[in-house]
Amino acid sequence: MSIFVNPLQFGPTEDLSRYPRDADGDAEKADTRGVDLLFIPEGREIYPEPPRVVVTPRALGSRWEGAARPGHFEGVLTVVAKLFNIVQPDVAVFGQKDIQQATLVRAMVRDLDMPVEIVVSPTVREADGLAMSSRNSYLDAAARARALALSGALRAVQAAHQAGERSATRLEEIARAHLASHGIDEVDYVAIADPKTLEPLTHADAGAVVAVAARVGRTRLLDNVILGKP
Question: CB within 8 A of 2, min separation 6: which ones?
């Protein structure tokens, strides 16, 4: 397992300096899950000098997270390419919670002929439905309760889709109304998108991705579901 807080994917006003770090806790969790080796490099090992060559995602990285965080995916893909070259894995696992990231990594591996199989692992959730994230540690009790609106909005969209709603516009309205009713008014996006290209959809069949990014207080959270799947 590799653990690296990558400075290249943080913007100048983002939370790199205070991003949660717990190497001992991470090592303990990894050990209980059968991890044999942890690769936890220092920043200067990965970037001994400012990079002059980076991986640019083009159109697939320009919307949703890419629009909210300019340059973010350039940093993500560059460090993933470096880690793949250093470790040379046969298989690499990425979480569905960061679904645009996983989609871009898959595209990079395909387009650049990297001999790595990409596995996307389902989002792991707390008992109350909140998607697990390092940034959850920023939330106090009140914000933690409000943060449940993200998963609640996605469940509302799933319920409407199961009841027959296919209009992407209407499904987005349902999600935004749920967020607003729970006091979440800083919403970066609600995306109804194609699962392979992440292009916006007008008609949401089974398999469409519904992704949301919103701020709860100062904490920015992501979540998503794939319609038509449990």
Answer: 38, 39, 40, 41, 83, 87
What is the SS3 assignment for 174?
helix
Phi and psi angles of residue 189, each rounded to the nearest 5 degrees, phi first: -165, 155
Domain 7-121, what architecture?
3-Layer(aba) Sandwich (3.40)
The per-residue pLDDT for range 86-126, each reduced to its tens digit, is: 999 999 999 999 999 999 999 999 999 999 999 999 999 99
Instruction: Please tell me the class of the 134-226 domain.
Output: alpha beta
Q: With a cut of 70, say whether residue 193 has pLDDT above it.
A: yes
DSSP state string for 90-158: SEEEEEGGGHHHHHHHHHHHHHTT---EEEEEPPPB-TTSPBP-GGGGG--HHHHHHHHHHHHHHHHHH
Say which residue, 203 or 11, is predicted with more confidence.
Answer: 203
| Cα end-to-end distance, the chain, whole Å | 28
